[in-house]
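Standup notes
- HV: blocked on the assembly model, inputs below
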Amino acid sequence: MEKMRNYFRQSLARQFVALVTSFLFIFVIGSASLFSYQSSLTTSFERKKEQIETKMKYAQEIERAFNQAFSDARGYLAFNRKEFKLSIFREQENVQTALDALELTATTKDDKQFILKARQFANYYFVQLVPQAIEAFENGNMKKVLSLSENGGTASIEQFQFQMKTYKNKLTEQLDLEFKQLRDNQTTAQTAFILFIATILAILITIARMMMKKIGRPLNELAILAEKIAKDEQVVYDVREATNREDEIGKLAVAFKKMLMSIQEKEESLMAHNEELMAQQDELEFQQAELEQALETMQAREQQLKRRNDFINGLSNSLDKQEVLNSIVIHMARVMEADRGMIVLMNDEKTHATFGLSEYGVEQFLTYIYNGLHQRLFEQKKPFMLKREVAASEKGYHEETMFVHDVFLPVLSNENDVQAILVFSRFGGPFSDEDIQEYVGLTKQISISLQKIALYEQSEQARETVQHILNTVQEGIHFVDKNGNSKIVNKQMVALLQRQSIAELEGASYEQWARGLVEQSDAGKTLCDYLQSIIFNGDEEREPFVYHLPQKRKVIQVYAKPLYRNGERQGTVFVHRDITKEFEVDQMKSEFVSTVSHELRTPLSSVLGFTELMLTKELKPERQKKYLTTIYQEAKRLTALINDFLDVQRMESGKQTYDKKYENIVSIIEDVIETQKVNTTIHQFHVQKETNNTTVLGDRDKLAQVFTNLISNAIKYSPEGGNITVRIYERGNRLCVDVQDEGLGIPEEAIPNLFTKFYRVDNSDRRRIGGTGLGLAIVKEIVKAHEGEVSVTSELKKGSTFTVSLPLVVMANTRDDERETDEKQAHAHVIIVEDDENLAALLEAELKDSGFRVKLVKEGKEAIELIQKEKPDAVVLDIMLEEHNASGWDVLKALKQNEELAHIPIIISSALEEREKGMALGANSYFVKPYQPSQLSKTILQMLLNKERQGEIFVPLNEEAN
Amino acid sequence: MAKILLAEDEEVLRMLVVDTLEDEGHDIDEACDGEEAIEMIKQNDYDLILLDYMMPIYTGLEVIQQVRNMPDKKHVKIMMLSAKSQQADQQRVLDAGADYFMAKPYSPLELVQRIEEILHGEDA
């Protein structure tokens, strides 16, 4: 029970649900009972009404039956008709039946009484009266019949009829009574219903009031309180009734109370805190005042700093000197609020920048830079200020006296030298000491800027020097950092990388710069691998790498060296060396060896083979002869080959000496043809001489070899015979000789290689044509040694023409003049300084033969004296003289130092190979012993002729001469 | 007696070999360059072909390659005669399809002996 109460006390909702449930319960019960009562009333009324109506029906039936019987009896008695008599009895039965039915429904005393009386009357009437009357009537006893009716018969009937009527009235009354009762009951029920509704309303009002009291009031109180709290009023909440409750309101009230208390506590603590803060604020206000004071000081300082900052930021970051100076002047003027000013660097060029100055003024300042007003700066190295009256030119339209303030500021370097001076003028007012101090601070900044530029210029110069040095190196040099970026290249490398300028490669990434190289090289991928392994993997042990540039026909060798700074690899230097020459020489060498070996083995095979046959076999004499002939020819061929080979070697290595003289080329050619004619019967030789200038300066034997080779080739390569024409003609300053055949001709593609050693045109027609493959190479070498050229034109199956062109020697004079020349030669005086008597005699004989006047002298001093005395036209001078008081060098020096003798041509004749030294000392020619004496006389002659240009006779026409 | 082709551009060497082998009773055809050699090989069945290395038009090496590409000449015996006697040259020739190699200058008697061996080897 207690539990139950608690259960409800703890929750308003439960209480509410309980109330409503009970209310509904009562309402339903009440309604139901009222309703059932009402319906039972009606039912009972209906039943009674029905009962009464049934009784009425039966009563009427009885009445009707009796009345019928009465009328029948009277009819029968009146009319004597049997059917009436029967009907009487039938009505008796009807009465009986109705009475029985009525008896069954009889409820009241009246009913029973009536039934009894009815029965008695029926009994009387039907059993006594009627039969007696009938009997009497039948018996004709009318009297009796009348007596009967008068004795009571009629009276009893009337009495019964009355009773009957009474009963029926009673029934009607009963019905009315019932109805009235019903109405009364219904009225009662309605009253009860109104009462019920009233009760329900009363209950509802009670519940509402209770709820109001239990929920509304405390909530309202809380709401008011909350509002008060919100309005920040002092609130005390202590409602025991509410807080003691256990339901939601109770909890709410408790929570509310707690909250209220905690708010109050907090408020107190806040108040305390607030007071503290107020105290602090006071203190802060005091401090602020102090700070404001400090701030003012700082702002002043800040202004200064800002100006300084603006100045520094304003200074151009450029490394261009002029740009920086311009920016200094403009910004300085802005800081100083100056109207004009300038800066001058104390370098050789006096580089300067100005602001608001005329050209003339600037020039004047620079002219007197070392003795103007500012001279003080150089001595004191301190700034100073001048106040002066404004000059008329500066005054504009002002008439009154005005002053201008000039500030002179030195810019000091780290070494305390004046590296620049600044001069600024202000019309607006004087400069304070603080201003000047500030400007001095700025000059330090300027000094840093200037030093930066100086450093940059220095490093730029150093860089340029390095670049120039790199560019003079023949190898391509390339410095690549460890990320593969191109850092330094020289000109050669730029060309190698197929770029236009060094700048293009500055900082280029590996992909960018390597592409040009890799694309044109034949070893793209491997070259790439090589470069990458060194750049990116620091592979330092790689051997130099060789690659070809097929388009440029170059062979390049690249090697790499790492560069270290403080033990850390900075990158790699690649050096690309053009080794085309070495490579070609190498290749040629190995080809040459292989070819020589083949060329030698072929004749050797024949010699050895046939010799072996002859030694081991019994051969017929004719075969023996044939073999021996072959052996002989092959051995000769071998010899020719070896000779040719040695010739070529000698010529190529420059060891071949040429005994050059003035020769008539026609005679050489005619001699050659004479010899070659023997070897053929099917060729006709023709010499066409188209010029008279057929003299050349050359070695007769070697020139003969040239034409021998050319003419023998012409014979060999025209196996069907034909004309071989040699044509001699002038072409410009050249003497040309064509050797033309009508033979096989040379395929076009073979022409470029024709003069290469061992090159032989590869075609079937040439298979039977022997040769060493060296002939034309020899021709080329000899002609080259004669400052000439050899070329070829050819048409297949039509023949070839080889053209040799040599420098033309113009025979200016006729044969008669030649004699004059001889006379002139006879006058020429030559002194020979030579201690070897035999050689001296040989030379003397040769020179005398050539028509010179000759004197011999053995030692140096004597020689100098003699030369001074005789003043010869030329001197032949030995160097290693027997007596050591004066060597040939001393003689040479002495002669060249003497103005009178310096012009005399000197030909050194020495075993020493010191040509350069001799020529440097002033010798005109240098002969290394042993030499052909004829060469000496030729040289002297040429020299004299050159010297006396006016009367020249033989003049070799060089290209320079034209 | 065997039918032999000699391809050699040097007339004297042709004479040497032809004389020597004819003395031994062989039937020798001569070719002066690579082209001629190929023509003759196409038209004849040789027991042995002797090829010079350095010949005009086609070198001995080229001749071998062409011959080995002829369906019916895959097995014809070829001997290369060459002044290029280094190991590498010799190997190249053998790789190209030559069966035998002799270096110049060669002894004619040795050549005869080599040929006898080769031809006898065939008989056996």
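- HV (later): unblocked. Chain A touches chain B through 26 residues (CB under 8 Å). Residues 236-302 of chain A form one domain.
- Next: hand off to the docking folks.
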